[in-house]
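A reminder from the course coordinator: this example appears on the midterm review sheet, so study it carefully.

Given structure:
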């Protein structure tokens, strides 16, 4: 399973919850935007670098 297949599987499991109240931009490409309160938003992001995939081994 590659990265994008895994993302699709996770999004399918989450269903409509990724479009709920307080979610401005749902998950997709390493980030989501959540409303945290009065005119505030929180950007949540994650990424990974894998030796041999994203940069040479050694």
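Designed residues:
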């Amino acid at each position: 399973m590659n990265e994008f297949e895994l993302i699709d599987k996770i999004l399918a499991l989450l269903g409509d919850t990724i479009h709920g109240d307080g979610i401005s931009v749902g998950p997709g490409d390493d980030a989501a935007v959540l409303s945290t309160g009065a005119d505030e938003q929180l950007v949540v992001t994650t990424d990974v670098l894998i030796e041999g995939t994203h940069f040479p081994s050694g």
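The longest strand covers residues 31-37. The helical segments are 3-14.
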